[in-house]
Amino acid sequence: MQSALVLRIARELHDIVAHHMSVVALQAGLARYVLDADPATAKVAIGTAADAGRQARRPGAGADRDRLR
């Protein structure tokens, strides 16, 4: 039973990190694309990417602990 819980937690963490890394990649690509033409948009995209990276590193980021019990 405990191994099932560990597997569920591992899957949840994988999903959270994968989601946040997708956001980072998308926003970084946007920033690179618009950097010269629209620096303000690039700045916002870089901030969004940084925020997503920080959120992915937080312990329990986005995890619904009640759902994992």
Structural class: mainly alpha
Q: N-to-C terminal Cα separation, in Å?
A: 11 Å
Share of helix, binned: over 70%
Roughly what is the average pLDDT, rounded to an integer? 87
Q: How many strand segments? A: 0
Question: Can you tell me the number of structural domains?
Answer: 1
Give the number of helices.
2
Beta percentage is under 5%
What's the SSE pattern?
HH
Structural shape: rod-shaped
- Whole-angstrom Rg: 16 Å
Main beta sheet, described?
none
Unreliable stretches (pLDDT < 50, length at least 5) are none
List keywords for this structure.
69 residues, mainly alpha, single chain
Structure, briefly:
The protein has 69 residues and is an all-alpha fold. It has helices at residues 2-34, 39-57. It is rod-shaped, with a radius of gyration of 16 Å.
Explain how this protein is built.
The chain has 69 residues and is mainly alpha-helical. It has one domain. Helices cover 75% and strands 0% of the residues. It is built from 2 helices and no strands. The chain has helices at 2-34, 39-57. Helix 1 (2-34) packs antiparallel against helix 2 (39-57). It is rod-shaped. It starts with a helix and ends in a 12-residue tail after the last helix. The model has no long low-confidence stretch (mean pLDDT 87).
Layout of secondary structure:
Layout: H1 2-34, H2 39-57
Helix pairs in contact: 1-2
